[in-house]
Amino acid sequence: MIIERAEVIVTSPNRNFVTLRLQTDEGHVGLGDATLNGREMAVVAYLKDHVVPLLLGLDAHKIEDTWQFLYRSSYWRRGPVTMAAIAAVDMALWDIKGKAANMPVYQLLGGASRTGLMAYGHASGVDTEQLFDSIRQHQELGYRSVRVQTGVPGLKAIYGIAAQSMLDGGEERYDHEPARRGPKPAEEDWDTQKYMRHLPTVFEAVRNEFGPDLPLLHDGHHRMTPIQAAKLGKSLEPYDLFWLEDCTPAENQDALRLVRQHTITPLAIGEIFNTIWDIQGLISEQLIDYVRTASTHFGGISPLKKVMDFAAQYQIKSGCHGPTDISPVGFAAQLHVGLAIHNFGIQEYMQHGTRTNEVFQQSMTFENGLLHPGDQPGLGVELDVDGAGKYPYEQAYLPFNRLSDGTVHDW
Ligand code: GCO
Ligand code: MG
What we know:
Number of domains: 2
Radius of gyration: 20 Å
Shape: globular
CATH topology of the largest domain: TIM Barrel
Strand content: 15-25%
Number of helices: 13
Oligomer: single chain
CATH superfamily of the largest domain: Enolase-like C-terminal domain
Largest sheet: 10 strands, mixed
Distance between the termini: 45 Å
Bound molecules: D-gluconic acid, magnesium ion
Number of strands: 20
CATH architecture of the largest domain: Alpha-Beta Barrel
């Protein structure tokens, strides 16, 4: 089965997505997600100029061999652009293999280890009242776990607070933190002391209102120093978090030893990691509890399965990144992995907008708080190429942060 055609499709139904579409001489079509939020066109060029010419004529069945060929022959290994491009090829080949075998990908990965994947949604509010409403809305939508992000008194705009309440509905309801369409990134403000004083009071209020059973998560979004992260983790212990995510910038992994010495709040890290070499030590030293790597930014289904199997040896579980910048294709890819592995933990599920769901038709289901990739052969996602063509790429940037004195801070 030979790869006969390879196209890179860029579409922006609710936000930008980059999709690789492979076609074989036997007529099977495979899709792969190569979306790198805010830097999309770099991956488009990498794929079009350097990868597509290498794929034509290859045996579509050789997933591992093609992965190793693209990784090793580039010489300049790793990095988000390279690994998102390789991820797209890997996913598309798994999709094709599933279609050729007439099986959903999870069957090829060993079969289902559970009936569905527990998902968490993004509850947020500028104040406690809005936050409570948002948590209730998520519960009504079926979520059994929620991430809690809150406004901080004295700060105007911060990461993770929905601009529009979900009750207001509308296309953009979940897209509160897209790479915002426009020629320049939006500026947000930040103050770690204010945040650290405020956050435990919010979790206390949420626990009092919603009781002890609701799993609660929080994303620190890489903003604290090691000692600040240790202090925050400790101060959140009474509220029994499911996890505290990205408590420190991911580059400095030694920091996690210090955090770990001081707190038993479970830690989740890995959404910006691209290869096993970024997370190997965090796993083998048991410095985290959940691996956040995403199929799209981690080189695809093959390495995602490998890193989760490695983590399983240390009783560390999966918690794959799943905001709307992971396309429906990348999302489906990690649902298949999540269903198959033994050490599944939780899956972030932010939900795509209506236009995105029209362009990407998906077999995935979300019922009673559980996700399932569906039983269509392959990944279970079809791309409406003509529909995609109606929404051309729009320049977009992620926001960034400045402290009150003007210093740029981690976003
Ligand atoms: C998350 C992430 C996202 C990122 C986004 C950047 O936990 O969902 O932190 O919200 O900010 O993926 O493109
Ligand atoms: Mg995050």
